[in-house]
């Protein structure tokens, strides 16, 4: 019998695919962005995708509150306990507007402050990453399990944000032997770690819980970890902070000692 969290990750994947199809319909015709109060962009695709996801989640898990980015931006923030869902209907809106394909649909279930099931779907390239008890990748019609890789002796491959570079991340990476650096957009950075293509992704700039949870779920299921810079667990359900994150480091495996 599949583990309950794997079953949920597959259900989330189905929902994300439906939302992704709606996003691609907007992508094909083009759209303009508006700016929210925090000056982040939002498009018609974000809103259509979120409506689809919320409707499907209400049928799938009617008793579990859903914290979704666009709803929260309009002041619709549910009360949450130890078990709730985080949704980013279009992670990487800047990538969407720049038409580089590196945008995703993110859905994750949080239980006891940790993500236990989630999916990241990149509709422009038909790549889906999901995880619960195990982790897997579906590209086109091909499905395969994924695992993080042992750290290479020659040094780590670091992932850097294309849209949000920051000096603190550079300072952190200076403490490790870095053999290669790569850029990626949205939650795909977590997926690159999960499938063994990279080793570390530091993020000291601002993020929200819905930006991170789905990728964290996939990475954790593949053998990786997301930690605070001091090595403490990275927790969810920060309601007093409006679900805003502090800095984190995503690792392919347990954090190595710096040289």
UniProtKB/TrEMBL annotation:
Residues that, per the record, bind substrate: 69, 90-93, 211
Enzyme Commission code(s) on record: 3.1.3.7
Any single Pfam family the record assigns to this protein: Inositol_P
Binding site for Mg(2+) 1: 69, 88, 90
Gene3D superfamilies in the record: 3.40.190.80, Fructose-1,6-Bisphosphatase, subunit A, domain 1
Keyword Membrane: yes
Cofactor(s) named in the record: Mg(2+)
Membrane topology, as annotated: Peripheral membrane protein
GO molecular function: 3'(2'),5'-bisphosphate nucleotidase activity
InterPro entries on file: CysQ, CysQ/Inositol_MonoPase, Inositol_monophosphatase-like, Inositol_monophosphatase_CS
Binding site for Mg(2+) 2: 88, 91, 211
Reaction catalysed by this enzyme: adenosine 3',5'-bisphosphate + H2O = AMP + phosphate
Entry keyword set: Cell inner membrane, Cell membrane, Hydrolase, Magnesium, Membrane, Metal-binding
Localization: Cell inner membrane
Principal EC category: hydrolase
Main localisation: membrane
Recorded superkingdom: Bacteria
Keyword DNA-binding: no
Family statement drawn from the similarity comment of this UniProt entry: Belongs to the inositol monophosphatase superfamily. CysQ family.
Function: Converts adenosine-3',5'-bisphosphate (PAP) to AMP.
PANTHER family: 3'(2'),5'-BISPHOSPHATE NUCLEOTIDASE 1
Protein name (record): 3'(2'),5'-bisphosphate nucleotidase CysQ
Gene assigned in the entry: cysQ
